[in-house]
Design goal:
heterodimer, A: about 350 residues, alpha+beta, Ubiquitin-like (UB roll), Rossmann fold, three-stranded antiparallel beta sheet, about 20% strand, elongated, B: about 550 residues, alpha/beta, Barwin-like endoglucanases, 3 domains, six-stranded mixed barrel, about 15% strand
C-alpha cells in the first residue's frame, strides 16, 4: 500500500494505482471524458488535469501512477480554468443541438457544459461537417458530435477484439471510421454506443422513442444465451425502447448484438395475444375460460382412457425457474406422470 | 450433464465466469464461444491479453481462433481420439498429478491407465487429422498450466458418443488435478438463458427438482409430503422418446411450453409426423411457431419482459427477472396458465405471489434454500449451492472433494460417428448457431434489423471443395441426406476444413434439421448426433 495526500486528505491505495483510481476509490471527483475504468488509461481529453507538488506542470490523473508521499491537488481556480477551456474548445466544434439530441440528459459533455456554466463560447472557427451516411441497421453515427475521446475505438479493440474502427486522418480532419470510410460492418455488439460520452453513437432502434424523461428503467436478465447478462430495460408507454447494462454487473456492462439490440420481438405485431382452438381445421379465437376448460377436458379424458403416461410435456429453457418448477409439478402431481422433459437437457 | 453427473455427482459449470480472467490456460473445445457465448468470450480475450494461453479445438475456424495460441482442427466426431491422445502424452511425460489422483479420485490404475496406451500421438493424428506435434504441444500446455479451465458446449455433447466426450474431458481434468479450485475446472457453457434452471427444477423424466431421483422411495415420499399427493413411481420418457414411443407406451397428448421441437429437433419430417399423430397437442408460446401451427390449442404466454421470476445462468447463478411491460392482449403469464389448468384437473396450486413458488423451490431443494428475492436483489444473484440464509453462495464447486465421494475415471474407447462419409454422401454436415440469430429464430427473426444483417439461410463450404463442384459464392445448392433435402445459398469460406460443411439451424425455409438424424442417439443421455451427419452437395 502507498500513502498519498489528495486535496489535503491522507489516503492509502494499492501500489500501481493511478491518481484517478486513487481519487475515485475515495469518492474525490475528477471530471473525465475519455476515461473508462474498464479500458486502458488514455490521457486524451485533458480534463482530469491535476497538480502534483514538485511537478512544474499539471498532469493527467488517469495516466499518472501514485507514488509514496505524493501530494495532489484536484481542484483550484487554475485547474478549473484549464478544464473550462478544454470543454469550451470541444464545444466550439460541436453542434449544440441538445434540444433535439437523442443523448440529452445522459450526456457527459452536456453535464460539463452545465457544470462550468458555458452558454457563450470564446472560440470561433470552422466546424466539421459530416454527412450522416451509414446504412448499418443498428448504430447511428453522427461524427459531428464526436469529441475524439477514442473510447469506441479502444473498446472495440481491447474488449471486443474486433477493431472495426480507427481514428483516421490527422488534426482537425481526424475522424473515427471503419476502414476506407465504408459503412460499419462488424459484430454490432454496441459496446461503442454504450461508452460514447456524447450523442455521436446511438442505437438506431431507439431514435425518437424517448430520451430520459418519463422513462421507467427495469433491471432484469437477458433472454438469449446462458451467460446471464444483466439488462436494464428502458420502458416508455408500455414499450421497451432501449436496453443498457451497468458496468457493475456480472457482464461488466458489455452485451452482444442480441442482448443490446434484439428486443423488438417483445412488441412484435406477430405476438400471440389470444387463446386459439382449432375448429374444423382452422384456428379460432376463444376466451381463456373456453380454452382452459377444453384443454382440461381433453387431457382428463385421455388420462382416464389410456392412463397418465399417455400424456407428456416439454418444458422450456426460456421460461423462469418458477414456471419450470410449476410445469413439472403439474405433470407429476396433477397429471400423474414423470413424462416431463425439456429439449436442452444435455 | 449426464456425463458430468456420473463422474462427479453433479453436472454444471464448476467455476464462475469472472474466474476466467485468472485462467493461465484456456482450452475451448466444441464451442464457438465468440458467437454463441459472446460475453464469456470477452473474459477469455481479457485473459489472453493478460498472458493466458488459449487452445481452441474445433473443426471450424471459429472467430475465437484469432486469439488462440494453437488451433486444433480435428475431424468432426473424433474428439475422443484427440483427448485420449493428449492424455497419452500427459502420462508418458509424467505430467499427471499423483497426489490429487490418490486423494480425490478412483479408477486411475485399474484399466484406465492401460486404456490410454493405444492412443499414441500417431494414432491420434491418423484418426483426427491433427498433426501429432500439435497434439503433444496442447497436452503439454494444458498439463503444465497452474489454473487451466476447460470450456465446451454442444460441439462436444451433440454426438452419438457425447457422453464419452464429456467423460474424456473429466478424465483430463482429474488426472492433472485441475478441479476443486478457483479458476480451474470443467465448464459446460449452457446455451439458453435458463437451461441450467429448467434442469435444476426437475423438468427431467427421472429427476425431481435438485437432481433427486424419482425412483428412490424415500425421495418420492418427501415430495409426496411436500405436494400432498401420491406420485408416479416409474421414470418417464425423455424428449426424443416421446416422439418415438409406441404401443402401450404411446404418447397420445402433449403439452409443450415455450419450445419449438419442429425446428430444434433432428429429422424435421419425423417430428412433424409424430406431432400430427397425437390425439391432442397444446402449445403455449409467444409466437405462432412451426410447432404451434400443428397444435389443437394454442395458449399465448408472456415473454421475459412481462413477468417476475428467476433465471439460472450457466455458472449456476440465480438472478431476478423483473416485469417491465404488460403482455399483449389476452396473453398471460405461464405460471397463471399452469395453475389454472392444474385446478381444472383437480389439483389446486395456490400462490399469491411468484416469490411463494420460489420459496417452495427452496423447500424442495436444499441447495437453493438460502436464497430469497431480496437477497438476489441485493447481492446481484447467488450461485447454488446456497443452503442457508447466511451462506454466500458457491463460486466454484468441489472444494475438498466431490458430491459422489471420489471423482471417477472412465475408460473411453474411440467409436466413429454413426454416419461416415461415403460415395453417395461425401460431406460431413455440422450444424449450429451464428452470432445474429438465436436458436429456431422465433425471436430474432422477428427483429427487423437483425434480419437485415442476416436475412437468409446459407451453407459454409470450403472454397477448394466448392471449386471442385463448380459452386460459386452465393450460388444455390441442394443439400441432401438420408432424411431429406434443402436448398440454400453456398458461402465459400476457409472456416470449415475440406469435406465439412456447416449450416446454421435458425432458418425455417431451409431447416438444417431436415437433414440430421433422430436415430443416432447417445446411449446414455439420448442426445441426438446433430454435429455429424453425412450429406451430398449439388449445384442447382
Amino acid at each position: 500500500m502507498l500513502t498519498l495526500t489528495i486535496d489535503g486528505r491522507q489516503i492509502e491505495v494499492k501500489e500501481g494505482s493511478t491518481v484517478l483510481q486513487a481519487a475515485r476509490e475515495h469518492e474525490i471527483y475528477i471530471p473525465t471524458l475519455c476515461d473508462d475504468p474498464r479500458l486502458e488509461p488514455y490521457g486524451g481529453c485533458r480534463l482530469c488535469l491535476v497538480q502534483i507538488e514538485g511537478v512544474p506542470r499539471p498532469v493527467t490523473a488517469c495516466t499518472t501512477p501514485v507514488s509514496e508521499g505524493m501530494k495532489v491537488e484536484t481542484t483550484n481556480e487554475y485547474i478549473e480554468g484549464l478544464r473550462r477551456t478544454v470543454v469550451e474548445l470541444i464545444l466550439s466544434d460541436h453542434p449544440n443541438d441538445c434540444m433535439v439530441c437523442e443523448k440529452a440528459g445522459d450526456c457527459t459533455l452536456q453535464e460539463l457544459a452545465y457544470f462550468y456554466g458555458l452558454r457563450e463560447n470564446r472560440f470561433r472557427g470552422e466546424r466539421r461537417q459530416y454527412a450522416k451516411r451509414d446504412a448499418n441497421p443498428f448504430i447511428e453515427r453522427d461524427m459531428e458530435k464526436c469529441i475524439l475521446c477514442g473510447k469506441c475505438v479502444r473498446v472495440c479493440e481491447e474488449v471486443q477484439g474486433v477493431s472495426a474502427i480507427e481514428i483516421a486522418y490527422r488534426g482537425f480532419n481526424a475522424k473515427v471510421c471503419p476502414p476506407f470510410e465504408k459503412d460499419l460492418d462488424c459484430e454490432f455488439c454496441g459496446q461503442c454506443v454504450s461508452v460514447c460520452p456524447t450523442g455521436a453513437l446511438m442505437g438506431k432502434l431507439s431514435l425518437g422513442k424517448g430520451r430520459q424523461k418519463d422513462i421507467k428503467k427495469v433491471d432484469t436478465v437477458c433472454p438469449y444465451c446462458g451467460c446471464g447478462c444483466n439488462l436494464t430495460l428502458h420502458v416508455a408507454r408500455n414499450e421497451v425502447i432501449r436496453v443498457s447494462s451497468s458496468p457493475e454487473t456480472l457482464n461488466e456492462g458489455w452485451l452482444c448484438v442480441k442482448g443490446r439490440f434484439g428486443f423488438k420481438f417483445i412488441s412484435s405485431p406477430e405476438r400471440l395475444n389470444t387463446p386459439l382452438i382449432r375448429k374444423n381445421g382452422r384456428f379460432e379465437e376463444v376466451s381463456w375460460q373456453e380454452a382452459l376448460d377444453h384443454v382440461a377436458e381433453r387431457l382428463g379424458g385421455i388420462r382416464d382412457r389410456y392412463g397418465p403416461d399417455a400424456i407428456a410435456g416439454l418444458s422450456s429453457a426460456r421460461c423462469t425457474n418458477e414456471e419450470n418448477y410449476l410445469f413439472q409439478k403439474f405433470f407429476r402431481a396433477a397429471v400423474g406422470t414423470n413424462n416431463v422433459d425439456h429439449c436442452a437437457r444435455y | 450433464m449426464v456425463g458430468l453427473a456420473t463422474v462427479f455427482g453433479s453436472g454444471a459449470m464448476t467455476n464462475s465466469i469472472p474466474e476466467i480472467e485468472r485462467n493461465d490456460l484456456i482450452f475451448v473445445t466444441g464451442s464457438n464461444t465468440k458467437e454463441n457465448h459472446p460475453i464469456v468470450a470477452l473474459r477469455m480475450i481479457k485473459a489472453v491479453r493478460r498472458g493466458a494461453k488459449l487452445i481452441v479445438a474445433d473443426p471450424r475456424k471459429v472467430p475465437l481462433v484469432r486469439f488462440a495460441t494453437i488451433w486444433i482442427q480435428q475431424r468432426p466426431g473424433t474428439d475422443v481420439a484427440l483427448l485420449n491422445s493428449m492424455m497419452h502424452v500427459i502420462v508418458k511425460e509424467d505430467l499427471v498429478d499423483r497426489d490429487f489422483i490418490a486423494s480425490y479420485t478412483e479408477g486411475f490404475d485399474d484399466g484406465f491407465l492401460k486404456s490410454l496406451e493405444e492412443y499414441t500421438p500417431e494414432v491420434g493424428e491418423r484418426i483426427t487429422g491433427v498433426p501429432k506435434e500439435k497434439i503433444i504441444e496442447a497436452a503439454r500446455l494444458y498439463a503444465g498450466a497452474s489454473n487451466p479451465g476447460i470450456y465446451y458446449t454442444m460441439g462436444i455433447t451433440q454426438h452419438s458418443h457425447g457422453t464419452d466426450n464429456v467423460f474424456c474431458i473429466a478424465n483430463l481434468a482429474l488426472m492433472t488435478g485441475n478441479l476443486g479450485k478457483e479458476s480451474s475446472g470443467v465448464n459446460p457453457l449452457r446455451g439458453q438463458n435458463n437451461v441450467q434452471g429448467s434442469t435444476d427444477m426437475g423438468c427431467s423424466p427421472n429427476m425431481y427438482p435438485g437432481y433427486q431421483k424419482v425412483t428412490i422411495p424415500s425421495v418420492r415420499e418427501r415430495f409426496e409430503r411436500l405436494w400432498g399427493v401420491k406420485l408416479p413411481e416409474k421414470e418417464g420418457l425423455v424428449a426424443s422418446e416421446m416422439f418415438f414411443a409406441s404401443g402401450a407406451q404411446k404418447v397420445r397428448a402433449m403439452y409443450i411450453m415455450g419450445e419449438n421441437p419442429v425446428l430444434s429437433d433432428p429429422d424435421v419430417g419425423h417430428t412433424v409426423e409424430a406431432l400430427k399423430e397425437l390425439d391432442f397437442l397444446v402449445v403455449q408460446d409467444i409466437f405462432m411457431t412451426e410447432t404451434a401451427e400443428l397444435a389443437d390449442v394454442v395458449l399465448p404466454g408472456a415473454c421475459f419482459a412481462e413477468k417476475d421470476g428467476t433465471f439460472t445462468n450457466t455458472e449456476r447463478r440465480v438472478q431476478l427477472v423483473r416485469k417491465a411491460v404488460n403482455p399483449p392482449g389476452e396473453a398471460r403469464e405461464d405460471s397463471w396458465i399452469i395453475t389454472e389448468l392444474s385446478r381444472r384437473l383437480g389439483y389446486e396450486m395456490k400462490y399469491n405471489r411468484t416469490e411463494e413458488i420460489f420459496h417452495e423451490i427452496g423447500m424442495a431443494w436444499p441447495a437453493m434454500a438460502g436464497m430469497t428475492y431480496s437477497r438476489l436483489d441485493e447481492e446481484g444473484g447467488l450461485q447454488w449451492p446456497c443452503p442457508t440464509q447466511d451462506h454466500p453462495g458457491t463460486p466454484y464447486l468441489f472444494k475438498g472433494g466431490f458430491p459422489r465421494g471420489k471423482g471417477r475415471f472412465t475408460v473411453v474407447k474411440y467409436r466413429p460417428p454413426a454416419e461416415e462419409p461415403d460415395e453417395e454422401y461425401p460431406f460431413v454436415l455440422t450444424t449450429g448457431r451464428q452470432l445474429f440469430h438465436y436458436h429456431t429464430g422465433s425471436m430474432t427473426r422477428r427483429v427487423e434489423p437483425i434480419n437485415r444483417v442476416s436475412p437468409e439461410p446459407y451453407m459454409e463450404i470450403n472454397s477448394e471443395d466448392a471449386a471442385e463442384l463448380a459452386i460459386e459464392d452465393g450460388a444455390m445448392v441442394r443439400v441432401s441426406s438420408r432424411r431429406g433435402e434443402i436448398r440454400l445459398k453456398a458461402r465459400l469460406s476457409k472456416r470449415p476444413d475440406r469435406g465439412v460443411v456447416f449450416i446454421p439451424f435458425h432458418f425455417r425455409e431451409a431447416a438444417a434439421n431436415v437433414l440430421t438424424s433422430s436415430i443416432a442417439l447417445d446411449p446414455l443421455c439420448k442426445i441426438p448426433e446433430l454435429k455429424v451427419s453425412t450429406v451430398r452437395v449439388e449445384k442447382v
